[in-house]
Amino acid sequence: MITREITVSLRSLFTTDEQTRGWMAAARTPETRARIRRWSKVETVGMTTILVGIALIVLASFASIAVAVWSSATDNNRPDPYWWIWGVAIGVTACGTVADLIATRRREEACFADGWVTVGTLDRAIEHPGSGEDKTWYDLRISAELPNGATLRRRLHVEGEGFERHVGDRMRFLHNTLDPEEVDDVRFAGWPDRKKRRSRRGKDRR
Questions:
Q1: CB atoms within 10 A of CB 63
Q2: Residue 73 pLDDT exceeds 50
Q3: 55 near 72, Cβ under 8 Å?
Q4: Domain with 194 in it
Q5: Statement to judge: residues 88 and 187 lie in one domain
Q6: Do 48 and 146 belong together in one domain?
Q7: What number of other Cβ atoms are within 10 A of residue 12's Cβ?
Q8: Residue-level pLDDT at 197
Q9: Residue 83 sits in the same domain as residue 125
Q10: Where does the pLDDT of residue 2 fall: very low under 50, low under 70, confident under 90, or very high at 90 and above?
């Protein structure tokens, strides 16, 4: 039972073929679909490398003990073996982390490359305080009125602080469908009024 739960948890770390097909279905050009497929594969490689790195870190602990025993028995106190053991383990983990972060960002950009850009209003910002290593995140509720009179409703989860101060402000976001209730079809694209506020402050200082 425990083995099955661990297997399910590990699978949740990887992008499934079904998820990739869903993202590709929303794309409208072959180029975008190819980008989504490519970066999804890089995501998988990155996550696999992270797991390999974590395994190497665990093994490095045992290897360090073995080297310490060997050094004590042979009066060889050179630090080189430790540098190699921990350098490889940490290096592999770091490379996997960087690859995964870059691939995830690029894949998300590709998923909305053919989407619409809409400016809506931030209606609610529900704070979920973090504890320990967990960061504070917000459940943002966004709405935007379309030219046909329909109202788009979107939900966005973001990490950070101070989003409650932006309630009522205009928010730019990307989306792939015009379905008013497809709440998770959204990617944050900035605050359109922020540049105006900065320019006004600059003029006031002058």
A1: 17
A2: yes
A3: no
A4: 116-203
A5: no
A6: no
A7: 8
A8: 54
A9: no
A10: very low
Residues 6 or more apart in contact with residue 43 via CB below 8 angstroms: 14, 15, 100, 103, 104, 107
Residues 94 and 135 in one domain: no
Q: Which residue, chain included where needed, has tokens 């490359």?
A: 113
Beta bridge partners of 188: 173
First to last CA, the chain: 69
Alpha helical stretches, state H, 1-29:
2-12, 17-26
Return the closest-CA partner of residue 187 out of 142, 127, 148: 142
107-128 pLDDT, tens digit per residue, is 999 999 999 999 999 999 999 8
Q: How confident is the model at residue 75 (pLDDT cuts 50, 70, 90)?
A: confident
- List strands edge to edge, sheet with 151-159: 151-159, 137-145, 116-128, 170-175, 187-190
Go through the chain and tell me how many residues it has. Answer: 206
Residue 49 and residue 99: Cα distance in Å, rounded? 9
Cα–Cα dist 107/203, whole Å: 39
Residue 86 and residue 145 share a domain: no
**Sequence-separated (6 or more) residues with CB below 8 Å from residue 62:** none
* Mean pLDDT, rounded, of the chain: 86
d(CA 49, CA 206): 53
The number of domains in the chain is 2
- Choose the final residue of a domain: 85, 111, 137: 111
Region 158-172: mean pLDDT is 90
Query: What percent of the chain has a predicted confidence (pLDDT) above 90?
Result: 54
